[in-house]
Amino acid sequence: MFLPRRTIRSCLKQKVGLPQLSWRLGLWILLFVLIIIPSLYTIDLNLHVSLKPWIHRQPSVSVDSLTSSCFQSPYTIKQLQSPPITPGIPLKNSDECLGFASSIGDSSLLSASTQRDNVWFHTYWIPSNDNMEDHRLGIMLRSFAATHSQGSLMIWVQDGHENALLHSNTWRQAKQHMKGRLEHNIWTTIIDRNNKRKHISDQEDTRSEKMDYIGLLILQQYGGVWFHPSIVFLRSWAPLLGTREWMIQQDCQATHSGQEAALGSQANNHQQTVMHFFANSSILCQLVETMEVSLFGKSSSSSSSSSSTGLVYKDVYHRLMKAKIRPWLILPWCFMNAAGGCTANNLDLFNKPTLGIPTLPPVFALQYNVRQWVDDPDTLLGLLDLSHQAILGW
User: pLDDT by residue (tens digit) across 98-137?
Assistant: First the structure.
């Protein structure tokens, strides 16, 4: 922002001092901030002003434990009451979020009407440049088999990678021990049905936008859970697989209104959205159509992404609410990404515990970044895999 020449000349003729010139310059900058910026940007400020604690002390209330006699006996959820899997408020602190996660028990607390046995878990497999894809596949498969007595896994590949998967020693071993609960399929057959193969046929492209779109197409036909292959299961997901569809937050900044940071933001390209939907879901149909407009344009002639997956999810979420349709649930971030919270402890799978496997919080899974891969049996990831091998015997 520059001062007009006339103003500068007048200041020089009148020999205006530096303080007065600075005051006028500041006035122009202030006018620019108050007039120009609000006309270009939408400013949303949510401020909360309160007195410092040393000025105004609030009455002390104990929050460390429950002192009421109501919870002295073992607290259980009645058989006819389906346990909630989403909190009533956003959870930013790890102790609150992990406490809520621990309140979700195993599938024995679910009523018969909400139990679903044969749920398909879908993920994908792509050969990598470091030749460690077979090892990573084994870690994921063993973690699933060790924590899930029910449910089946479907590994999706491109047609050019099918033989590599079927000749993998890890695949053959897992197929033998999982006894019909492990299958594979080719995702290009799903893409062909939607006439989008030519737009996303790059075999090395695993961006969140592309893989989320493929996941939506797969769930639209088969239903179940779509997850990233770098996930390590820590407990059964049966309590989450009731009668509601959901996505999992990627960090604690997300809200139930579909904030972009929650669902596949561009800042977390190594993380695709973990989600659960039913086959032929109306909500899923809307998500697919909106994603196609974002990825390919209205004419389906462009392969460039016009917006992130997070913006797509946010747009559909709000449109559903305006149409008086209940959207999908947003599960708390700590159910899976316990290391991604605002105040969470570091649960990096590549850390090396000094005293074996530490006591892990009651999260359902952890995820690692493939770009930071460390092949070391002494890491938390390696120790967890050894424990799963001991449980399974393979």
Answer: 888 888 876 544 444 445 568 999 999 988 777 788 899 9
Structure-token match 């390919």, residue found: 296
Measure the CA–CA gap between 123 and 347, rounded to whole angstroms: 23
The Cβ of residue 94 has, within 10 Å, a number of other Cβ atoms equal to 21
- The pLDDT tens digits of the residues spanning 299-334 come to 444 444 445 777 888 888 888 888 888 889 888 888
Handedness of CA 201, 205, 207, 208 (dihedral sign): positive
Q: Is 37 exposed, middle or buried (0-12, 13-18, 19+ CB in 10 A)?
A: exposed
| pLDDT tens track for 69-104 | 554 555 554 443 455 788 877 777 778 888 888 888
Domains of the chain: 5-37 (no CATH), 94-392 (3.90.550)
